[in-house]
Write a structure and sequence with these properties.
YbaK protein, 5 helices, alpha/beta, about 25% helix, eight-stranded mixed sheet, two-stranded antiparallel sheet, about 160 residues
């Protein structure tokens, strides 16, 4: 079952979404393969620390965050991938590495990779290593209101 907070948020706004259960996967690429979704259609969440502030970067599973591009896109001078111990308490109902890309539910800014707009739908971890949620990219934009920018590179 998706994180209750996420499910209540989506249901409360009448958003159409699909739950996808898959075998246990600890990386976004493994989850994509297990759920038979392309790496560009699965959005992964990476928590970054930008000028000391936690931010959520959302990008295709098949790509990686380019920290220099991210700095330019967001207008910060320092950015690094946050250590799990720094943010795990911010998402108490989520498995580490399976955080859904809804920073607005956690009072966190979200930066979405522009290339995700190439997808009609996106899927993402729903708080566990065994379940994804899939919804329209348009709904994702309307619900999360992320800053959209180019900040990734092919892995």
């Amino acid at each position: 079952m998706p994180v209750r907070k996420l499910e209540e948020f989506l249901d409360g706004r009448g958003v159409n979404y699909v739950r996808i259960t898959h075998s246990t996967a600890y990386t976004a690429q493994q989850a994509a393969a297990s759920a038979h979704i392309s790496g560009k259609g699965l959005a992964k969440t990476v928590i970054l620390k930008a000028d000391g502030k936690m931010m959520m970067a959302v990008l295709p599973a098949s790509r990686r965050v380019d920290l220099d591009l991210f700095k330019k896109a967001v207008g910060v001078s320092n950015v690094e991938i946050a250590n799990e111990t720094e943010f795990k308490d911010m998402f108490p109902e989520c498995d580490i590495g399976a955080i859904p890309p809804f920073g607005n539910l956690y009072r966190m800014d979200v930066i979405s990779e522009k290339i995700l707009a190439d997808n009609e739908d996106i899927a993402f971890n729903a708080g566990s290593h065994t379940e994804l949620v899939k919804l329209s990219y348009k709904d994702f934009l309307e619900l999360v209101k992320p800053k959209v920018a180019t900040f990734s590179a092919v892995q």
